[in-house]
Amino acid sequence: MKHDSRLSATLHALLHMADHGKPMTSDQLAMCLRTNPVVVRRTMAGLREAGLVTSERGHGGGWTLARDLASVSLRDIHLALGEPVLLPLSPATESPGCLVEQAVNHALDDTFREAQALLFERFGQIRLSDLAADFSRRMADHAQHAKGNHDAA
User: Which keywords are on file for this protein (predicted)?
Assistant: First the structure.
């Protein structure tokens, strides 16, 4: 199964937008994400339809957050992205008549379903403001560490 990184890339972009404090163009966001601006525009268009971002054309335009970070959960973003698959939805069925495979798949089906429900519930508890606060702490620690290394030199 191919790994879908849209959620993490989108969170990355939204945190850059929050930190930037003014509209960011698709080109700027694409540089942050090391991707193509077309990918950014396609993703942001879905977020705009969900009311999470806005866009303005022209000089000084770009993408901006439409809601306060504390009001946006990871679940909101996951839903706006079309609910990309995070876990296998079901185990592979290669020999449907095999009783061993049936027993294994029955157990895995239940486990995958429970894991998906737990993950979705947890996504509802995590806010963009939580991620932004963690980022700010990391930046402060990084700056303090860099200053300490500079002072020691």
Answer: DNA-binding
